[in-house]
Amino acid sequence: MPARWIAILICTAALPAQEYLAPIAVDHPAIRYFESAPDDRVARLSKRLDRGEVKLASPTVALGDALGDLPSLLDLLGIPVDSQALVFSKTSFQAAKISPANPRAIYFADDVAIAYVRGGDGFEVAATDPKLGTVFYTFNGQKFTRRDVCLKCHQGPATLGVPGIFVGSVFPGPTGSPAKEGAIVTDHRTAFEDRWGGWYVNARRGEQRDRANAVASNPSDPDVLDTDGAQNLTSLIGRFNPSGYLSAVSDIVALMTFEHQTQMINYMTRVAWEARIAERAGNDEAARRSLDTDVEALIGYMTFAGEVPLKEPIGGVSTFTKTFPQRGPRDSKGRSLRDFDLQKRLFRYPLSYMLYSAQFDALPASVRDRIYQRLYDALPGKGSALARLSVDERQAMLEIVRDTKTDLPGYWKHPAR
Fold this sequence. Notes:
Largest sheet: 7 strands, antiparallel
Helix content: 25-40%
Order of helices and strands: HHEEEEEEHEEEHHHHHH
Number of domains: 2
Strand content: 5-15%
Strand order of the largest sheet: 6-5-4-3-2-1-9
């Protein structure tokens, strides 16, 4: 199997759809990305497989190629099937096998993602190590192999300068080949009309236009997509044959959640690395300024500053909208940061659920304390991005965090807030 793991977007120049930051040296003495043994969900599963403590279940149905292992692998990694999103642009090292008739399936949980191509040679996997950030692997049905060469495409401006994955939008031709221009990285700050080029998207979303479910059939106009009949697709029947896939849908709510999550992980990786570098450098002025800037950027992102509001309500077509909120903690009133809104914005309470991740908990204490302080100060709403929310919404967010995070500084428990 080729070594390079290209998660979503081909290595091309990207348009400024979101923040692009310079790379941080992976071989810095404070980082030692390649030399450090990862402790992520995949690394732990790999050790258990090697020791014979667990094994992939034999498929009950002859599914063909690697798909036979996929249900068991998803189960062992704790990845739900209803997170499936389908991308048909040729933006992977398995590009020759990807097309609108044979899309690539992406599945994800909070700290791991896996990609499968029908007829492919194996699986592409990315897992989040609490300290290293994203680590890349392939799985051939028997063992996981770490693929550091993936950083050729997966560390750069599109990933905030650290190893990471990202969701991209391109202008695909009839076979899925992306145009040389117009490729962007997308997240919750990206306008709807620029999202999901090269992706299948099942949704009910009214008249909000996007690039999904369409190709540019005219070579003389490579950035003009054939979008007639491509919006509000609740079924992909006629677009591709779903035989050989675990699901026949590519859910919009799952994809929007994945978009947010990818860059949230990248932001946390970046500030953690910068904090370690600044500490090793004796907190020199340049390192401190860089860290200060990126901590503020992380706080803005995790509170959904700049989120593009929905013009109309959206609805998914899979069980993801129901099952995703069930996978996180709830406060004494039954509320969760994982609850969806889908009327005016993605989440009911716009504070990232990645607050509960092992990666957030592993941030250097000085950084984590600053984030807690800034969030606490922002919740009253005065002079902050959260001023856009109602008093009741901000109070609910404070109560949710207060009830569900065990490592909060003591001032969070003050009853007057």
